[in-house]
From TrEMBL:
<dbReference type="GO" id="GO:0005634">
    <property type="term" value="C:nucleus"/>
</dbReference>
<dbReference type="GO" id="GO:0000077">
    <property type="term" value="P:DNA damage checkpoint signaling"/>
</dbReference>
<keyword id="KW-0227">DNA damage</keyword>
<dbReference type="InterPro" id="IPR003021">
    <property type="entry name" value="Rad1_Rec1_Rad17"/>
</dbReference>
<dbReference type="GO" id="GO:0006281">
    <property type="term" value="P:DNA repair"/>
</dbReference>
<feature type="region of interest" description="Disordered">
    <location>
        <begin position="1"/>
        <end position="55"/>
    </location>
</feature>
<protein>
    <recommendedName>
        <fullName>Cell cycle checkpoint protein RAD1</fullName>
    </recommendedName>
</protein>
<feature type="compositionally biased region" description="Low complexity">
    <location>
        <begin position="42"/>
        <end position="51"/>
    </location>
</feature>
<keyword id="KW-0234">DNA repair</keyword>
<dbReference type="Pfam" id="PF02144">
    <property type="entry name" value="Rad1"/>
</dbReference>
<comment type="similarity">
    <text>Belongs to the rad1 family.</text>
</comment>
<keyword id="KW-0539">Nucleus</keyword>
<dbReference type="InterPro" id="IPR046938">
    <property type="entry name" value="DNA_clamp_sf"/>
</dbReference>
<dbReference type="InterPro" id="IPR003011">
    <property type="entry name" value="Cell_cycle_checkpoint_Rad1"/>
</dbReference>
Length: 346
């Protein structure tokens, strides 16, 4: 199995004739404002390299992201170690990137078709492939320039089953990157999340506060207990180490801090600190400062689900969304979900 490799190079732009359109039943195309026929993004994204034909030889996916800054932020949220593999799944609904560790922590990034200026999908079924998450983020960073958003075409598969990236915003030059893919590792578990009771046990808190609270609970080798109280409505995070440290979120005391709360039973579960910390440690400051709400839910058996939202809006535009409402451009939001298994009692 080949190891993931990548390369980027600057070269003159060269486009081959556009491939013929396939049957409507096997493709979906999404266009957003500014990507109409004849425009730079749409015209370039329909090009193909020489040697690629039509029908079965055509790519499974050709899509154009008008700005990859938000995509880099979303993928960075689930990057908690340097040599981290990921499984990418393609469908007519968008792209899902899944990572996991030790069978106890899993994260998924959902990139819906609406996030792309163009989304041309022609595969049968849902293709899946593995790659290096760090390499994918590093390659996408090649296309990010402060204050400038260059459309990027994403194509899969290439002639040797690579994931191909290239800039399509300049008529003079093109940045091109190839990422070698591999047969995807089997996902050890794909938990079907179920609520613990008839009423979901959940609360929504400002993302920055949640991150700060978890960071403050660090003790060497410790576990974190999360305790839900229905009356009075509150959530307590408790860390144990050389001493005890508790952080309490009281719903009635500060509704600006605890944005929403729902619980009809008292619950308490413990989680390994390193897994709990991974759910917030890499959320970019650009996502935290907009005061988005992170939603925390405990499901059946103590499975913990933490959801974040990251803006994938065009550079220079403002897009804000939280779980309590106040949405603007909701289709320009990437969804990130973490699942953490509880510690088993001795």
């Amino acid at each position: 199995m080949p190891e993931p490799l990548g390369m980027g190079q600057l070269k003159g732009t060269s486009f081959a004739p556009s491939r013929e359109k396939r049957g409507r039943e096997n493709r979906i195309r999404r266009r957003r404002r500014g990507a109409g026929p004849g425009s730079g993004a749409a015209g370039m994204s329909s090009s193909t390299t020489s040697g690629q034909g039509q029908g079965d030889d055509a790519p499974d996916l050709v899509c154009v992201a008008d700005c990859v800054h938000g995509m880099v932020d979303a993928l960075s949220c689930v990057r908690w170690n340097k040599h981290q593999g990921a499984v990418v799944e393609l469908s007519e609904h968008g792209i899902v990137v899944t990572v996991e560790e030790s069978g106890c922590l899993q994260a998924k990034v959902y990139l819906k078709t609406e996030l792309f200026a163009e989304y041309d999908y022609g595969a049968e079924g849902r293709p899946r492939f593995g790659l290096s998450l760090g390499l994918l983020v590093d390659c996408l960073n090649m296309f990010t320039v402060p204050g400038f958003a260059s459309p990027v075409e994403i194509r899969y598969p290439g002639p040797d089953m690579q994931l191909l990236l290239r800039s399509v915003g300049s008529p003079d030059a093109c940045i091109h990157a190839e990422i070698r893919t591999r047969i995807p590792d089997t996902v050890a578990w794909d938990y079907h999340f179920e609520h613990a009771g008839n009423t979901p046990v959940t609360f929504t808190v400002k993302s920055a506060i949640l991150k700060e609270s978890i960071d403050d609970l660090e003790w060497p080798g410790s576990s974190i207990q999360i305790h839900f109280h229905p009356d009075p409505p509150s959530v307590i995070f408790k860390g144990e180490g050389h001493g005890d440290l508790e952080i309490e979120f009281s719903y009635y005391a500060n509704t600006d801090l605890l944005i929403a709360f729902q619980c009809d039973q008292e619950l308490s579960y413990r989680y390994k600190y390193k897994f709990l910390r991974a759910t917030t440690s890499n959320v970019p400051s650009s996502a935290l400062k907009e005061n988005r709400g992170s939603k925390v839910t405990i499901g059946r058996g103590g499975m913990l689900k933490i959801q974040h939202l990251v803006s994938v809006a065009r550079l220079g535009t403002q897009s804000y969304h939280n779980f309590a409402g106040g949405a603007q451009q909701p289709s320009r939001i990437a969804f990130i979900e973490f699942f953490v298994k509880p510690e088993e009692d001795d």
